[in-house]
Design goal:
FAD/NAD(P)-binding domain, five-stranded parallel sheet, seven-stranded mixed sheet, single chain
């Protein structure tokens, strides 16, 4: 038999979203516990590819109550983000339990039961802060690739040294795919597959573009026409490239090819019925939601929860945070999650009164 604990609010996920909710709940004097499946705060960032840098300047990556260190115009590395999150949790003494995998969330209509490892938590509220990027999305035909072809999702990519010698096909021409293709093109032949997602300039009139779009475009809610337009575009896959264009990727030696449509004789096939004889394939094809641990009928057919600003109306006490378009266009960004965290924390505080 495992142990049992009673806590007012369980926050599932110790990344930026979960920590931001913890900050606001602590300010409101509320009892809570953060559960994180990783061994160390920030590990979800440390596990990304080695050369990854954010395309948002540091001033837009801060969580509530603590500025991001260094120059506000600096573009942080993934390890800097990880260290910042760890320092944030330490500064505000947020109660995070690491290496705790939540297996099940159920409800009897009055309280929630959160089963994690060998412990059962009884809670009035559950905040799901597992993030917008959970389950790698890989096409089914990937299993038909020849054993000689090494293939992996972009979330498992670290650096060129882990790949086999030979050509690479990167599937997905969004920011991740284009950046990985550029890195690999320094040492080998690279094909980049996927539709063009558009591009944003790094600067306008010498000023970083985020100075313009953070308080305007990215602040729009999902109830505005612009917010709905961004949602519709995102549903088709791929965000606009920031700071460079696909033309610069091609100039670096990357060959653009059409959509990857299948496999023939163990090799990937792209539009135009062209077979690419490559040694590696990287699937920069995004993620699908995975809330299978929540045993409540609150999900749309696409796997995302039914909610308003993170509040699940049909399940009092159940909240979501850190999802794309939770409320604003920037809701999933590190510097944008604080606003949603404040709102969700307010709802928890009001309900407890």
């Amino acid at each position: 038999m495992g142990s049992q604990e009673r806590v007012s609010t369980v926050i599932i996920g110790g990344g930026q979203a979960g920590l931001a909710v913890g900050y606001h709940l602590k300010k409101r004097g509320k009892d809570f516990q953060i559960l994180d499946s990783r061994s160390r705060i920030g590990d979800s960032w440390r596990s990304r590819w080695d050369s990854l840098q954010l395309f948002t300047p540091a001033r837009y990556n801060a969580l509530p109550g603590m500025r991001f260190p260094g120059s506000p115009a600096h573009f942080p590395s993934k390890d800097e983000v990880a260290s910042y999150l760890e320092a944030y949790a330490d500064r505000f003494a947020l109660p995070v339990r690491s290496d705790v995998k939540v297996e099940r969330v159920t409800s009897d209509g009055k309280h929630y039961t959160v089963t994690a490892n060998s412990t059962v938590y009884e809670a009035d509220n559950v905040v799901v802060a597992t993030g917008a990027f959970q389950k790698p999305r890989i096409p089914e035909f990937a299993s038909q690739l020849a054993p000689s072809v090494m293939h992996l999702h972009s979330s498992a990519y670290r650096n060129p040294g882990q790949l086999k010698e030979g050509d690479v096909l990167v599937v997905g021409a969004g920011n991740s795919g284009a950046q990985i293709a550029l890195e690999l093109a320094k040492t080998r032949k690279v094909y980049l597959s996927g539709r063009e997602t558009g591009a944003l300039p790094r600067k306008i009139m010498g000023v970083d573009i985020y100075r313009f779009i953070w308080p305007t475009v990215l602040s729009k809610t999902v109830e505005t026409k612009m917010g709905q337009k961004f949602q519709a575009k995102a549903a088709k896959g791929g965000d606009p490239l920031v700071g460079f264009k696909l033309a610069s990727v091609e100039a670096a030696g990357v060959e653009r090819v059409g959509k990857t449509v299948g496999v023939r004789d163990g090799m990937p096939v792209v539009e135009g019925d062209r077979v690419l004889k490559v040694a590696n394939v990287i699937w920069a094809t995004g993620f699908a939601p995975d809330f299978s641990f929540i045993a409540r009928p609150i999900f749309h057919d696409d796997g995302y929860p039914k909610h308003h600003r993170g509040v699940v109306k049909d399940e009092p006490g159940l909240y979501f945070i850190g999802l794309r378009f939770l409320w604003r266009i920037r809701s999933h960004l590190t510097g944008g999650v604080g606003e949603d965290a404040a709102y969700v924390s307010d709802q928890i505080a009001k309900a407890s009164r």
